[in-house]
Amino acid sequence: MSYRQPFAIDEWYHCYNRGVDKRKIFQTKADYERFLLLLYVCNGTRAVHVSNLKDRRLHSILSDTTINRGKTLVEIGAYSLMPNHFHLVLKEIQEGGIASFMQKVFTGYTMFFNKKNDRTGALVAGPFKSKHVPNDEYLKHLIAYVHLNSAELFDSAWKKGTGNRQLLEQKLPLYSYCSLPDFLGQKRLENRLIGDSVFSLFESIPTIQEMLQEAGSYYAEVSGEIIKASP
């Protein structure tokens, strides 16, 4: 899968895309879990073929310490999967790491999805989009935005600042297909998907209320690009 700009070692990027024709690319729990599984097994210089694994369940693979992925390609700072799009916050660790990682993830996921649904052809709308993260303050806004992207499922008015904050505080930590639960300190195997360095940005973990404000700032700044990747 191609990319629009060169990626630099130790730099962070917001990578995102949506389904072709805005179609749903995640239809079932199995779809979400396969994508998360691929975020793990594809993040390495050594090829890991899911078809060769005896137990292909997400939690079984995340708990299997014998899987040799080689050298890590990228650090995943945050992620959010939505029915028809995804957001990833990635740091390049190996030269060409982001491009290789994204290609492996989407080749594997497209093959899985197409076989499962008896279809052919592209699943996502062209090459993934990417935006460089210029500084730590921007990274904070971005992490909040990505972590709260699932708020769209519970209250679409949140981006305008008129959403039901109490409802969002209840629902957001329960959304399994996002790294927010890990960020909030929940103990789950999905913790293995994300790196540690983003936590050093914060003296203390912000509340969901504070993240809503951060996310709103990021959305206001890049709304033109994000709308293209959102429902």
Overall description:
By secondary structure, the chain is an alpha+beta fold. It has two domains: 13-131, 2-Layer Sandwich (Alpha-Beta Plaits), CATH 3.30.70.1290; 133-229, no CATH class. Helices cover 38% and strands 12% of the residues. The chain has eight helices and four strands, in the order βααββαβααααα. A hairpin with a 2-residue loop joins strand 2 and strand 3. The radius of gyration is 17 Å and the shape is globular.
Provide the domain count. Answer: 2
Strand order of the largest sheet: 2-3-1-4
Give me the Rg, rounded. Answer: 17 Å
Q: Which structural category fits the helices and strands? A: alpha+beta
Tell me roughly what share of residues is in helical segments. 25-40%
Point out poorly predicted stretches: 224-231
What is the CATH C level class of the largest domain, in words?
Alpha Beta
Mean pLDDT: 89
Largest sheet: 4 strands, antiparallel
- Strand proportion, as a percent range, falls in 5-15%
Termini gap? 23 Å
H/I helix tally: 8
Query: What is the number of E strands?
Result: 4
Jot down its keywords.
four-stranded antiparallel beta sheet; 38% helix; disordered C terminus; 8 helices; 12% strand; 231 residues; Alpha-Beta Plaits; alpha+beta; 2 domains
Q: Could you outline the blueprint of secondary structure elements for this entry?
A:
Elements: E1 12-18, H1 29-41, H2 58-62, E2 74-82, E3 85-92, H3 97-117, E4 129-132, H4 136-147, H5 151-154, H6 165-171, H7 180-183, H8 208-229
Antiparallel strand pairs: 1-3, 1-4, 2-3
